[in-house]
Amino acid sequence: MAAIQSRGAGGSSMDRYLEEISGVDLLDRDDEVRLARALRVADRLWRRRALAHPCVARALISRWHDGLAAGRQPTAFSDGYASGGAAERVPRIRATLERAADRLEAHARIGSRTAADRAEKRRLRLQMRGALDRAELRPDSIELAMAEAREDL
Fold first, then answer.
1. What is the DSSP letter of 81?
2. Using 50, 70 and 90 to split pLDDT, how confident is the model at 4?
3. Coil, strand or helix: which one is 10?
4. 81-112 per-position pLDDT tens digit
5. What is the C-alpha to C-alpha distance for residues 124 and 130, in angstroms, rounded to an integer?
6. How would DSSP label each residue in 109-135?
7. Under a CB-based contact definition with an 8 Å cutoff, are residues 144 and 60 in contact?
8. CA 21: distance to chain centroid?
9. Contact of 103 with 128, CB cutoff 8 Å
10. Pairwise pLDDT comparison (138 vs 84), residue with the higher score
11. How many angstroms separate the CA atoms of 64 and 21, rounded?
């Protein structure tokens, strides 16, 4: 603080910034843990809702197939590639995305006239979401698919 005061009332912008933030209370350990848990719950809820939407699922699966058709493994698509053993994960990720695509196709074929149809569509959406979630999709991939889905609506 003495260095800040010795420069006069104005000081540099860094000095003013440091002076300003010195009065901000920091989180204690319990508050940090509580905040981290709340963020994890919010992130999980966001993923579950996004992955259960058929338009988002269609965009994700389309992006995956486009990458394969272009002759490349879309390694930035899934967090499963980021850790070691990415080559072993490719078949598993492909299988889970194919399962999601099958559920999506079945979902599209069913009408919504009866309660049984609506229940079946819900069951298929939940299975589709589960398959997409097991594919360890990266949040940025989901966000891109959401943007594509909004453009299609």
1. G
2. very low
3. coil
4. 555 566 677 777 788 888 999 999 999 999 88
5. 10
6. HS-SSSHHHHHHHHHHHHHHHHHHHHT
7. no
8. 32
9. yes
10. 138
11. 45
